[in-house]
Design goal:
457 residues, Rossmann fold, six-stranded parallel beta sheet, 14% strand, globular, binds nicotinamide-adenine-dinucleotide
Length: 457
């Protein structure tokens, strides 16, 4: 199949790369020339500076200019295409609704070009972006407005988790395709032929509206589960004495009906999807006079988690952040990615600067390049208080307090490193419960404050 992928961010790049592995001829198109040049170089350092996802640079290098092509010019590649995947950003508007301006800008441009195609074979335009329920229908209308001949629309939402995207694209739990005609389903089956009739992977054919709804229900349900643990589990552990969080989690999830995934308490879930998709679904329901109270609570709990440990440090440990030097471990929204979108660390930095800290020593195994972009002192002079360190040790040196914001394996069980590189009195604020042997530190006079437990020491 000749496939075009429009938008080569996280989703588009992974999708294009993995589709090319299956022998499709894939053209990945973006308006961002810097991105395309980096990908087209085939060099892992350049690709990873844009998107650092385990295994992705290798897949790109292996298929580059054989099955996978990058371009900033879409006109020459449109002829003969079977499918066009739209992997465009759909960020939130201030009112929570999805900003579809990137999406419709691209669609209008594409429709004008498709209307002029010489080869008028069937082409399906497929939404991979997470878009409000009913957007495939709006896409159909936008194409009709330009009289695009022989075109179908489909919804094929993306479920891959960052940090494990390549593996999950090769072996997804399910592939959901929503279309209106058998002709379009046939094209979708050919694109995903390796997953149709698979013994383990569900290949689900449905309506575009159902496919769009599946994505929203799935993402908001995952965040609901995470927020349940944070809003109820963490509060129980922090309020009642002698509750062991890890035992609580094991005891509850020993029941097969209860998910092990998400059964942790932490500093809030970030990333480009959860927060924005919940906000969008709230908007979609409330703007149609439906109640979305449950989702409002889910969202609020998650946002509260991102900041409340700093309040607890002040209230419970009597700690004042003013003029203190902070070690901040973890900047990405979760381990195994350099993506900092909606990361809890962004909120932590905002909270620390607002409390008048004198310096923040930051370290993250993958996101240092990305962090310099997010915390650009030309945008906010206070960001000059951040310095970037090459190791945990170096970030800890000469600090008064440590905040752990990301669950990188490298940060697990850091007690000895903390002991060797800091001076007491010292407070450890653990947003990910990464230091199971904290008791040894407490015995030596450190204070330890973790999500899900009362202050120790
Ligand atoms: N990131 C994830 O984990 C994830 C997972 C599932 C679904 N999604 C959804 O997928 C969509 C894309 O997400 P992302 O994280 O890849 O976004 P992104 O912001 O990383 O990438 C979007 C890309 O689209 C490009 N673009 C913008 N306008 C364009 C245009 N007119 N023509 C061509 N390219 C254009 C941008 O330059 C950018 O490279 C969103 O709707 C998101 O909700 C994301």
């Amino acid at each position: 199949m000749k496939i075009i992928v429009v938008g080569t961010g996280f989703v588009g790049l992974c999708h294009a790369a993995v589709c090319s592995e299956y022998g499709h001829e894939v053209y990945a198109y973006d308006i961002d020339k810097v991105r395309i040049a980096a990908y087209a170089s085939g060099k892992s350092e350049e690709i990873e500076r844009m998107i650092n996802e385990p295994g992705l640079a290798t897949v790109i290098a292996e298929n580059l200019n054989r099955y996978l092509f990058f371009t900033t010019e879409i006109t020459p590649i449109l002829e003969g295409s079977d499918a066009i995947f739209l992997c465009l950003p759909t960020p939130p508007n201030p009112d929570g609704s999805s900003d579809l301006s990137f999406y419709f800008n691209a669609v209008d441009y594409l429709a004008q070009l498709l209307a002029k195609r010489v080869d008028q074979r069937r082409v399906v335009i497929i939404n991979k972006s997470t878009v409000p329920i009913g957007t495939a229908r709006a896409l159909e209308q936008a194409l009709a407005k330009h009289n695009v001949p022989n075109v179908g629309v489909a919804s094929n939402p993306e479920f891959l988790p960052e940090g494990d995207a390549v593996e999950k694209s090769r072996r997804p739990d399910r592939v959901v395709v929503g279309a209106d005609t058998e002709e379009d389903f046939r094209i979708l089956r050919r694109i995903y032929s390796q997953f149709v009739n698979h013994v383990r992977i569900s290949f689900i054919e449905t309506t575009p509206e159902t496919a769009e709804s599946i994505k929203y229900i799935a993402n908001t349900l995952l965040l609901t589960y995470v927020s349940f643990w944070n809003g109820i589990g963490a509060r129980i552990g922090e309020t009642f004495p002698n509750v062991r969080m890890e035992d609580l989690k094991r005891g509850v999830t020993a029941d097969n009906r209860i998910s092990k995934w998400g059964s942790y308490v932490g500093i809030g879930a970030g990333g480009s999807c959860f927060g924005k998709d919940v906000q969008s679904l709230i908007y979609q329901l409330e703007s149609r006079d439906q109640d979305a109270q449950l989702l409002r609570s889910v969202y609020d709990i998650n946002e509260y988690q991102k900041m409340y440990l700093l309040d607890r440090a002040e209230a419970e440990a009597g700690f004042s952040f003013a003029n203190k030097t902070v070690a901040l471990l973890g900047l990405s929204f979760k381990q195994r990615t350099n993506d900092m979108r909606d990361s809890s660390a962004l909120k932590v930095v905002e909270g620390l600067l607002g409390r008048g800290v004198s310096a923040i020593h930051a370290y993250d195994p993958m996101s240092m390049h990305e962090a310099r972009r997010w915390f650009d002192p030309s945008k906010n002079p206070l960001f000059a208080k951040l310095s970037y360190h090459e190791s945990v040790k170096s970030a800890l040196a000469s600090t008064d307090v440590l905040v752990i914001a990301t669950d990188w394996e490298e940060f697990r069980g850091l007690s000895r490193t903390i002991e060797l590189n800091t001076k007491k009195p010292y407070l450890i604020v653990d947003g990910r419960r990464m230091i199971p042997d904290y008791a040894e530190l407490v015995a030596q006079g450190y204070q330890y404050l973790a999500v899900g437990s009362p202050l120790r020491g």
